[in-house]
Every structure is written in structure tokens, then in C-alpha cells.
Specification:
Layout lengths: L3 E6 L5 H8 L2 E7 L3 H14 L1 H5 L3 E2 L17 E5 L21 H18 L8 E7 L9 H12 L2 E9 L10 E9 L13 E2 L5 E2 L5 H4 L12 H11 L7 H16 L8 E2 L13 H4 L4 E2 L16 H7 L14 H10 L3 H15 L3
Parallel strand pairs: 1-2, 1-4, 2-3, 4-5, 10-11
Antiparallel strand pairs: 5-7, 6-7, 8-9
The structure holds S-adenosylmethionine (SAM).
């Protein structure tokens, strides 16, 4: 039974979709421009949200002028992990629209179209809650101007705005991934003064609301939790006739660069983890290039050289909390898969947020 409706903008491979769906949300519109991300999205979500595709609501380019925003089906929650772009400094006070020409402008226009339509016809629903995601440094992007403009813009549209940086490692996935989440709720349709952010999950999956206690209370996890067994990995390697062990040349290059960086006194260079590590570094969209941010130790593994290996795409999926052991599948090449998981949200973080939004703001 669906309890609320949501739209999935800049949808990628559907991290928000899984999280909202798990919490009773029905996806009524999604938008993603990248051909390969669309392939993964449709492959998976045609199973759980078939009407999205049969009804023609899987849009490609959100800036497409043929797309009339007021025709987007009504929804309660808008989700968007949108690209971070600077806004003009023309100044809000002068009444210019600083957001024009950016993708946030399109998010704003979708919300505005619904609010305007509601003024003419009360049957049109106002978007009640907005959930936006971005990189940790978003608040300081362009000296704070980007965040300021977004907050002002949403305030002007009638929304209260709250934001926090959350870390995936506190939500049961062994990845140090910090992302800002902006939650906004419409003053007229959601009578709430604040939103209490979830900062993590305990061993018993209870929500941690105290930011200072998250390191102490969060469930204990290890990188080993998301790794394939040596046997499983070997089976994949045999099946696909490839190896995830990095080449000698690449390994030499990584080691050389590490020494160079160390001499310059900075900590850059490759990072290596094993099953006992508490968490990996952040997987990024460029992981496919050389895997340097997350290498897995292989010393002493029978039949393998001492050089480390990259994550298998299935492990990348697990590192982002995707249900790859049950129904979610990867229909694209390894390189596309790394890019897609690196660009994605960690599902358990958004799922926890979705649960709190449903309880605290939608009163469901
Ligand atoms: C940071 S990713 C979001 C990933 C997503 N949150 C997930 O869970 O996989 C941003 C996405 O926006 C998409 N995008 C960029 N410009 C777009 C446009 N004009 N219309 C639709 N999607 C666009 C990109 O292709 C990319 O997949």
C-alpha cells in the first residue's frame, strides 16, 4: 500500500527511489539524462514501479522545453541529488533570479508550478517536503553563496529549511561518506517547527538523534561485511574472464605517487583496506579510473599476487547499501557501474531520512 507520492530528480540509479519505496512511497515521475544510468534505473525499477515507465513518466532531460512542469503528476515529496553549480551574484535584494541557468532553477520551477496551480485549483497538491542531497562542502561552495541562495529561494516559496551533514559509516555501511542533506517542508501544509535529523543507527537499528553520540552508539561494522569471499570473487573472475587485481604497472604508479605526496608532506595517494578495517574512504564517480581511493589488500590470499585489487561492482553496490543480494541488478559494464555507485547516495542513510520524514513531517 502506497502512503505518499514522490518524484525522483537527477535520479541516477535510484538510491532515493529504493529508500522512499521501502517507506511506502510511490514514484510518480523520475528524470535522468545519462544513457547508462537510465538503463540501470529502468532495468531495476520496472520491477517495482512499472507505471513510471508504462505511463511515460521517466523523463530524460529535466531542462527539456517540451516538458511542462505543471503536467508532472502531483506528489508529496521531491527528491534530488543535484549537481552543485555556482549562482550569479546579482543579489536577491535586487529581485533578480540568481538561480537561472542552473539545474537548481529547474527544481525550483517544478515546485513553483505546483504552488501556482494550487492557487487556481485546490485539488492540485502542493509539494509538502523536499529532500535534497549534495557534497559535504556544499555549504561553503562559492563562499556560502550557493547555499544562501537556495535557502532564500525555498523560504520565498514558503518552505522551512534544515540541513545537516550525515556520514554513511553511522548507518551500517562501512564507508566514510559525508554528504549534506537539506530537508524543507511547506509551512502551510506541514505544521512543524523543526525536523530532528537522524544521525545514525544503533546495533538494534534504533535511530540516533544526538549528533555527539553517533560515534559511540552507531552499529559496529567492518569492511569485511561488504566484501565477497575469495571463492565468490574467484567465481566472478572465472565467469567473466577478468581479474580485479590491479596491474603491476598501476601498482608501481600508485606507490610512486604515494612517496611523492609523502615527500611533499600531504596525505594523498592510494588507500588500502582489509576485512578488519572499520570503513573505506568515499567511493567517487572516478573510481573506475584507477581505484586508488579504495584498494583491497590481498597479501596471503591463495592463488593471488601480493598486489591489491579493486572492489568488485557487487561490493561497490553493497558499500552504498544497495539490495544487490536480493532484487537489485547491475545490467551495465563494470566502469559504468563504478561511476553509477560512486555518484549515488548510500541507501540506508536516505532510507532512515525517509522514515523520519514520513513520521515527523508527513504524519503517516
Ligand atoms: C549526483 S548524481 C545523482 C545520483 C542519484 N542520487 C542516485 O542515487 O544514483 C546526479 C545525476 O544527475 C543527472 N543529470 C545531470 N543533468 C541532468 C539533466 N539535465 N536532466 C536529468 N538528469 C540530469 C546526471 O546524469 C547524474 O546521474
Amino acid at each position: 500500500m502506497h502512503k505518499f507520492k514522490f518524484i525522483d530528480l537527477f535520479a541516477g540509479i535510484g538510491g532515493f527511489h529504493i529508500a522512499m519505496h521501502e517507506n511506502g512511497g510511490e514514484c510518480v515521475f523520475a528524470s535522468e539524462i545519462d544513457k547508462f544510468a537510465r538503463q540501470t534505473y529502468e532495468h531495476n525499477f520496472s520491477k517495482i514501479s512499472p507505471e513510471l515507465f508504462t505511463g511515460g513518466h521517466f523523463n530524460q532531460d529535466i531542462t527539456d522545453s517540451a516538458l511542462v512542469y505543471s503536467n508532472i503528476p502531483d506528489f508529496d515529496v521531491l527528491c534530488a541529488g543535484f549537481p552543485c553549480q555556482p549562482f550569479s551574484h546579482a543579489g536577491l535584494k535586487k529581485g533578480f533570479d540568481d538561480t537561472r541557468g542552473t539545474l537548481f532553477f529547474n527544481i525550483k520551477e517544478i515546485i513553483r508550478a505546483k504552488i501556482e496551480a494550487n492557487k487556481l485549483d485546490k485539488k492540485v497538491a502542493i509539494p509538502r517536503v523536499l529532500l535534497l542531497e549534495n557534497v559535504k562542502g556544499f555549504r561553503n561552495h562559492d563562499k556560502g553563496n550557493t547555499y544562501k541562495v537556495i535557502k532564500h529561494t525555498l523560504n520565498d516559496l514558503g518552505y522551512e529549511v534544515a540541513a545537516e551533514v550525515l556520514n554513511s559509516k553511522h548507518f551500517g555501511v562501512p564507508q566514510n561518506r559525508e554528504r549534506i542533506f537539506i530537508v524543507a517542508w511547506h509551512r502551510d501544509s506541514v505544521k512543524k517547527n523543526d525536523f530532528k535529523f537522524p544521525f545514525g543507527l544503533t546495533q538494534k537499528d534504533e535511530v540516533i538523534y544526538e549528533k555527539e553520540k553517533r560515534d559511540e552508539l552507531a552499529k559496529k561494522i567492518k569492511v569485511g561485511d561488504i566484501l565477497l569471499t575469495n571463492k565468490e570473487l574467484q567465481q566472478f573472475e572465472n565467469r567473466d574472464n577478468k581479474t580485479y587485481t590491479i596491474s603491476e604497472k598501476l601498482w608501481e604508479g600508485h606507490q610512486r605517487r604515494k612517496i611523492m605526496h609523502a615527500e611533499k608532506g600531504n596525505g594523498f595517494g592510494y588507500s588500502i583496506f582489509n576485512s578488519q578495517s572499520s570503513y573505506t574512504s568515499t567511493i567517487s564517480a572516478r573510481y573506475y579510473k584507477d581505484g586508488s581511493e579504495i584498494l583491497i589488500e590481498q597479501k596471503g590470499v591463495k592463488g593471488k599476487p601480493d598486489r591489491p585489487r579493486k572492489l568488485h561492482p557487487v561490493e561497490a553496490a553493497k558499500l552504498q547499501g544497495y539490495p544487490i543480494d536480493s532484487w537489485y541488478e547491475i545490467p551495465v559494464s563494470d566502469n559504468q557501474a563504478y561511476k553509477q555507485f560512486g555518484n549515488s547516495v548510500s541507501v540506508p542513510v536516505v532510507s532512515t531520512l525517509a522514515f523520519e520524514i514520513k513520521n515527523q513531517l508527513l504524519d503517516l
